[in-house]
Amino acid sequence: xxxxxxxxxxxxxxxxxxxxxxxxxxxxxxxxxxxxxxxxxxxxxxxxxxxxxxxxxxxxxxxxxxxxxxxxxxxxxxxxxxxxxxxxxxxxxxxxxxxxxxxxxxxxxxxxxxxxxxxxxxxxxxxxxxxxxxxxxxxxxxxxxxxxxxxxxxxxxxxxxxxxxxxxxxxxxxxxxxxxxxxxxxxxxxxxxxxxxxxxxxxxxxxxxxxxxxxxxxxxxxxxxxxxxxxxxxxxxxxxxxxxxxxxxxxxxxxxxxxxxxxxxxxxxxxxxxxxxx
Length: 278
What we know:
By secondary structure, the chain is an alpha/beta fold. 32% of the residues lie in helices and 28% in strands.
């Protein structure tokens, strides 16, 4: 369904070149859920944008159902649904008005757009909210509307960029149930996430680090071979869990960062704030 073949992406400026993605290859089958994880700056978002044909790779090819993204043909656009972190919803519209507008943009007639919206409202369980203004909806309901927009044109590949980020426990649960329903329709799904519960519903997992694909396996193997996904992450990215970034604060300088061995901030003589590297 999706074949990513030796793709790289280089961003150039007058002073230097940055290789955001380096020689990445993988495949995704119909009805399969692929999870992508990695630290900030690993190249995850750049990879997704190339798959969604929003930007072209510097090297390599991406093929979706025998169409190459570099051709920019209509078949590629029809095959991809992309749900970004920022929902981009129009708060002054009702859910129906918003989806109807985008249905028409995708070329649906009036009746066809109405039927597709009704179908999605039933599938994603937001029938009651169809005629309520988007600005009045909860964060979880807004995410449902955003996913519905990504599914309007019946794509074969759905790309979800942190779909449960910022949602409460109940809203995140319902979004995950939606993803499981979509899998049953043979829709292929890519999920970029930092949330462990999202990863566990994926069929396969890849880890990116510094632009490189450093690990690829099915999720059950990960669960069987590692005590936690955090252990996998630290293992394949070569980060040391016993090292943290410590932020020292004082009255004379704003702040500075230093990499220090683990310390108990509650008993330290300095006022500090620490975070694990994730």
